[in-house]
Amino acid sequence: MLKKIVGLTAGLAFALGAAGAANAQYPERAVTIVVPFSAGGNSDVIARIVADHMSGELGQPVVVENRGGGGGTVGASMVAGAEPDGYTLLLATAGTHSVNPGLRDVGYDPIEDFDPISVAVISSVLLVVHPSVEAETAEELIELTSSGEGQFNYASGGIGTVAHVAGELYNEMTGSQLVHVPYQGAGAALNDVVAGRIHVYMNNIPAILTHVRSGALRPLALAADERSNLLPDVPTTGEVGLEGFEMGSWFGIVAPAGTPDEAVTRLHEAMASMKDSEKVKERLEAVGSEVAVSESPEVFGEYMREQLSWWADVLDNPAFRE
């Protein structure tokens, strides 16, 4: 009889334990966000701001792990093959999920291998000129560069970069012939723009904002649907006659495909509250970025598909291939 009671007690304890485990609230332990780039860069800074906020919302540590290499493909591939349990996430970017897949085989499907959580930051391209350029507005620049009088150039950090694509689109949409001057990296390109050796530059706001605020560069238009709170007096490309020129980089959180719905929902909730956090807004604005949270994981997924398609069409051009 005693054996039966012990057996029943043990069985009941096991059942209750199993039920407790099944009903356990996600997350029960630390969550890792893999940044597919080296520490210290813009992606790393954004990931750490997002991780700090999510940690407070989830009640568990959210740690950042840098896995650079292959232009972001090494870290992205690692997360694509990780256990889909909600504890390994990726800071996906326009590079890892929109641009690189259109240029080469990256070893993962940017849509099918991941479950979207939410975008965190969208960083639009800013069109600037050196103050020596005789154009106070984007309209004046377009008139100047499309007139055929004089030769003007623009810089990029290399073939196929955001700055290169933006410059080619500008030429195509305005009938201009800006000469492309590619550099070995965005830093070298920006240095020559500030020095006045380059006339025109188009890149994401964070890369340029400090020089704009110092007066070293003149902002003419933002390639976005809406004006930025960072530069409220700068018109959008649509406002200056360049409809369809909206472009830039995005940063968001994704999980391996097959992650439980409960985890996806909880993670999205943790990110959604960023838009109401003054701390997050201040930290992002300090690095030239703004909060841009998706309404739902599904909305983010659709945005990812649209961006992949847009970049695939744009990059189907020999000019963007080395």
From TrEMBL:
CDD domains, alphabetized: PBP2_Bug_TTT (cd07012)
Keyword match Lipid biosynthesis: no
Signal peptide: 1-24
Keywords from the UniProt entry: Signal
Record bears the keyword Signal: yes
Family note: Belongs to the UPF0065 (bug) family.
Name used for this protein in its record: Putative exported protein
Annotated source species: Lutibaculum baratangense AMV1
